[in-house]
Amino acid sequence: MNFYNKNASSDVSASLSICCSSPERFLSVKQDPRHQNFVVESKPIKGTIARYIGSEGEKESSEMVKAINERIKQQLRESTKDQAENLMIVDLLRNDLGRVCDVGSVHVPYLMNIESYATVHQMVSTVRGTLDGNASNAIDVIEACFPGGSMTGAPKQRTMEILNEIEEGVSRGPYSGCLGYISLNGCMDMNIIIRSAVLTPIPNTDDSMESWKASIGCGGAITALSDSNDEYDEMLLKSRIVRHSISQWSSQQ
Q1: pLDDT tens, 152-176?
Q2: Known catalytic residue: 24?
Q3: Catalytic residue from among 41, 43, 46, 143
Q4: What is the C-alpha to C-alpha distance for residues 242 and 240, in angstroms, rounded to an integer?
Q5: CB 3.0-4.6 Å disulfide test: which of 43, 77, 90, 145 passes with 96?
């Protein structure tokens, strides 16, 4: 997604570009085909482990690669630390959605499912609720839930205060916010801005090739069971593909 200065001409480069490959759904609002109501859904990700890709010449569809990945997924599934993180955020989102959804409609159809992506396996839960379209709308849902609980932890307000102290009030920019669309028909789909790079142009003083500054935000949840080295390695794992993509792009400029 590109953002331009208000009075910029069509041939001017974007003042900010967000290159986002986030797999995490923050909030969606979709009309229930059976009723007038809307279904609200959030899919927090808490729990990440590297996927086994296989050595050179080894097909990803081979039985050995599949067997290794099944063991890796089981390791993630049984991780006490990741279970604690995931459950904490599920409870937080149930509370947030309960502020705007119909009473008694918030539920968890999928708890701690393991989903696989190109380079990682993730522990993902699904939280849903029903929204009365005559009483509330997508904006109300964002107001009730923003910022995403998977990025703040719980209790939300106090953890945000602690994060602000640790980060010395430095803005994160788009990272850990949300990006998506809100439709005129009342539907919405928003992600959590992770696995993303923010590009800003560097002003040139001559006619040389345009330069860009790339910023990649990445982090992880901290619990009493966290190990600092493991958390650092997980952060590098999460950012690996984005860093690789930016490196490839910059080498072609």
Answers
A1: 988 999 999 999 999 998 989 999 9
A2: yes
A3: 46
A4: 6
A5: 145
The residue whose two tokens read 């560097």 is: 202
Task: Pull the structure tokens for residue 163.
Answer: 């994060």
**Which residues, in sequence order, are bridge partners of residue 236?**
none
Whats the size of the chain, residue-wise?
A: 253
* 46 belongs to the catalytic site: yes
Across 209-235, average pLDDT: 88
